[in-house]
Every structure is written in C-alpha cells, then in structure tokens.
Amino acid sequence: MPEMFIKGLTKVEFGNQCIELADGINPNWRQDVFKVKEFNPDWIWKSPASHNHGFALSNTGAKLLEECLCITPHVIHSSVRATGEILVRLDKCMPWPYVIYPYLAETQVLLYSTEMTVWSALQDDDLIKLIETFER
C-alpha cells in the first residue's frame, strides 16, 4: 500500500503541525494536559512507525486534538459491529484522523474533520456507506 497523506502531509508532518499549533494556543500544553516535559509525536497514532497505515489516532492523539487544539469530533454511532474487515477497510480509506471504539453492541467512530462530518451526514452517519464512499 502506498504512503498515505492528510491534505498533502505525511503522518509525521501532520503530527508536527499539530504540535506547533498546540504550542501557539498554550505553550504549556505538554505539562498541563499530559503531565510530561517532552511529547513524542509517535504517541499521536495507533500505527506511528508505518507510513502506509491509516490515520487511526491513539487515545493520546485524540486528547491532543480535543484538549490542546480544541477540536470537537463528530461522533458516528453505528450498529455495525467493528470486525477486523471493517477496521482494515476504514484504515485504508479514511483520509483524515479518526478514532474507533468497537463495542459489542455498537461501534463509535470519532471524526476530526469538518469535511468528514459532512460526508458522514450525507451518508446518514452510516459507517458502511461512509467506508464505501471513500473506497471508490
């Protein structure tokens, strides 16, 4: 699978840009939010070392976007169970950072992009339809 980009940025570039923006909002965010002096950009992603895996955020990455950059995610509540197939498909096609919480009864997906929120709304927040839209 080829390297994936977020609006032309690699994962590393995107992470570094998030850190720069957080510094501009609150220079003490590392200590205030994470209680650390140094923040490793790899902590943002579930698969940080891989340039060709998708943009699934770790819990730390979600906290960075929400608490340090003040981004409110759009939440999809899906009755579709997040099987391995769904997770792989989502990882391959999602063009923006996201978090997925696969519960037994439902799956929650947090989208951190206004663009993705609009696409999701156009698909009635149907996770499968959203995946199919971006697989084309």
Give a quick summary of the entry:
The protein is α+β, with helices and mostly antiparallel strands. It is 43% helix and 11% strand.
Structural features, described:
The chain is α+β, with helices and mostly antiparallel strands. The protein has 2 domains: 58 residues, no CATH class; 62 residues. It has 6 helices and 3 strands. A 3-stranded antiparallel beta sheet has the order 1-3-2. Strand 2 and strand 3 form a beta hairpin. Helix 4 crosses helix 6.
What order do the helices and strands come in, and which of them pair?
Blueprint: H1 11-25, H2 29-34, H3 59-68, E1 74-78, H4 84-93, E2 98-102, E3 107-111, H5 114-122, H6 127-135
Antiparallel strand pairs: 1-3, 2-3
Query: Number of helical segments?
Result: 6
Radius of gyration, in Å, reads 15 Å
SSE pattern, N- to C-terminal: HHHEHEEHH
Placed side by side, the strands forming the largest sheet appear as: 1-3-2
What number of structural domains do the residues give?
Answer: 2
The overall average pLDDT, rounded, is 91
Sheet/helix structural class: alpha+beta
- In terms of quaternary structure, the protein is single chain
Through-space gap between termini: 16 Å
Please tally the β strands and state the result.
Answer: 3
- Shape type: globular
Key descriptive features of the protein:
43% helix, globular, 6 helices, alpha+beta
